[in-house]
Amino acid sequence: MVKAMETSFAGVLEGKKQYQVPLYQRTYAWGKKQLDQLWDDVVEVAAARREEPGTSHFIGSLVLATSPDFNIVGVAKLLVVDGQQRLTTLTLLLAALRDHLSKTGDAAGAEGIHAQYLVNVYDRGQPAKLLPTQADREAYKAVLTSSPDAGGSDAIGIAYNHFRSKIAAVDDPDDPRDLEEIENAVVHGLALVVVTAEQGDNAHRIFESLNNTGLQLSQSDLLKNYLFMRLGERAEDVYDNVWLPLEKKLTSEALELLFWLDLAQRDERAKQSDTYAGQQKRLEKLTTPDQIESEVRRIAALGDVLATILDPSRESDLSIRHRLERIRAWGSTTAYPVVMTILARRAAGTATPTQAASALHVLESYFVRRIVVGRATAGLNRSLLQAVSTVADADAVDVALCDYLSRGRKHFATDKQIRQAVTVVPFYWQGRAAQKKLILQWLEESYGSKEVVVSKNLTIEHVLPQTLSDAVRQDLAAALPEDVDVTAEHERLVHTLGNLTLTGYNSELSNRPFAAKRTMLAESGLHMNHEIAAHEAWTVDEINARGVALAEKIIALWSGPNEALAGASDEQPSETRRLVAAIIAEIPAGRWTSYGEVALVAGTYPQPIAAILSTHLMQGVWRVLQSGGTISPGFRWLDAERTDDPRAYLESEGLTFDSDGRATPGQFVDARELAELAGLEVDDGTPNWRAASGRPLLAQRQGFFQQVRDLGESTGTLITSWPKATTQEAVDVSIGVPGCAVVLALASREPNVTCSFYIRHDKALFTHLIAHREEIESDLGSTLEWRDNPEYKSSQVVLRRDGDWRDEALAPDLAQWLVSTAETFASVFPKRAQEVRPLL
């Protein structure tokens, strides 16, 4: 016997219950796409319940069978036959919310979630309300118990980290109820049908019947069957003359998209996963075969509109076809409801072809301008879905759409904002890779060249290379004042629009200086490359000037908002902080990254990142280390109750350190992986965390330090031990003086090497050395950087040498400099040390 009931997620979890996932079930397998869909549903339900507290969202069914030990020690134990992915995901979301509340000071809220929804508090055996299949239990247990190794690189850990990231991103310090609303949406706003088979039913057979019956019916199949069952005798005629031609135009996926678009035109909150339920609820109101037939014909007419959107060659008006081709290439189905409304009005004669083309151009402008100012996705879905009702009722669709997008915080960038953004926003990191390429392609087409731009083999090229080699550095520095930080200027400019173009010779151009690139760009078939090649040099002035020129072209090509309605739309100060919180929450336990990598993904610089992380409580902040893998000397727990050693805590998570406190390079998360974890778009080009040769920087470091070791061993003088080649960013060489060491260091994001002398645990020695700094600098023949760290374990004296160690031609000279300088340090400092501490 089978029982079915509709309930909330709270109804599933509350009480003494345990859900066991059987062995024959697959392991947890949801990825970012499914996680994001569920999260979007939760956020939308939370927003809807503010106005209508009873709002709910149906998420499917949960099929259960009673376990052989159904009621042992008072806990109802049930086998999860179907629905374990949803069940596991929702408990991981609640665990992530619990831990976020705990870290941000809401201990009572965290305990409430834990005791009510995640564990059977008084069950001493297996207290978890959900017991995943064996392969997932350890990872799930780590999350459930808030273990230091929770949130690893497995599917369970990735989901947990992803929800920590999402929660951190929406947590508004000025809104005390936002997370309470999220919790309420999860436990009371999500509805599901629970189907329970009685004890004795074969759970494995139930599972097979649910999952091994071949292709399941799509939502469009279900809706088609629902409609035609109600047509009676006229079903065959309507099918042959109306539905069959529609099916020949649209695939099954496109038909499902059609039903969702029709639903979204009525309700901007409609999700594609709810298409069947939403349409069925609407169609129930139709009571006669005539009404059903009329509905089928209306759907078929909309299908003609969608077929034109998906295949713009069907459109006879050349202006509209051109705009549809661009919107189709853009690849955002979220735009389709408003596009369909525009085209439907044109077909009905309530909008002229000129108005329709103009409205589509407004939509294209909206997309382009958002990316240029760095607001590619913020609030986009809701803004476009809500635009449908505005466009449907307006006298002039183009004016109405422009006015609607101009109001409020919809980020339809003004001309002023475009001009401000082109020289500062890292365009290369905005939006999807294909969309950035399209903008550059459309800019090229605007020059009116008779030659068609074939985009298939084109990629985005950085004219000023991403890797700052010595030659490129010299070119850039030549046009700058002497006191300007060349590295900072490079990082500021390299990803801006003025420095980007299209080329089919990305690998050939690579990291060459401008003089070498110039000839190839002049021979390009692209007009924009001829303009670049016309310059004698490619420096800050040229890049900024080109950015300014492209800004004016963008303003001319893509009209902006109605500025009388736009108003000020400045960035909220908290948005960068929320972005950073979302990024670092994705770092798995047992892994680490650097301030520079986080800055690269967040589109800013390491200094602001360090400031944010040192002043705001965030999940995973302890996993962000200095570039060499060391914990920042200034690191402090922002949680006043935490006094544990950060290194010990990182080690408990699985991170390993060498004897000098540097995290293992093999556990490093670089910018590409970090961006992927955070769900951001990353191009397939040669990013600046890889060398021009294509070798990873870690491998290059190893090769460089091998040169240092070989040179050092050949001298045989003062250094007693030269370490083997290392993949880290620094090596510690032994000088035979207790408490002192020479450290040779280099950086993946700076074009210099350093030689440092560390005095460990001896402030008296360092004080003495500072008192004789002029004599010491005279002995060395160089001015030194003196760094006293009163609260740390050592003080430091640094000598820096400009020159990119990644440049194969320059590397031998830099290696020789490091060796000779290290030996000079080893000679001068112990001599001074003996003046204070003869035993040294």
Identify the notable features of this structure and list them briefly:
840 residues, alpha/beta, 5-stranded antiparallel beta sheet, 36 helices, flat
Q: Overview of this structure, please?
A:
The structure is a single chain. The protein has 840 residues and is of the alpha/beta class. It has 36 helices and 15 strands. The strands form four sheets. A six-stranded mixed beta sheet has the order 1-6-3-4-2-5. Strands 11-12-13-15-14 form a five-stranded antiparallel beta sheet. The protein has a two-stranded antiparallel ribbon with strand order 7-8. Strand 14 (785-787) and strand 15 (794-802) form a beta hairpin.
Question: What value does the Rg take, in angstroms?
Answer: 31 Å
Q: What is the average per-residue confidence, as pLDDT, rounded to a whole number?
A: 80
The largest sheet is: 6 strands, mixed
What amount of the residues lies in strands?
Answer: 5-15%
Annotation, overall tally of beta strands? 15
Q: Strand order, biggest sheet? A: 1-6-3-4-2-5
Residue runs with pLDDT of under 50 for 5 or more positions: 207-215, 568-573, 682-697
Specify the overall morphology: flat
**Fraction in helix:** 40-55%
Q: Which structural class best describes the helix and strand composition? A: alpha/beta
Individual helix count: 36
Describe the structure concisely.
This protein has 840 residues and is α/β, with parallel strands linked by helices. The protein has 36 helices and 15 strands.
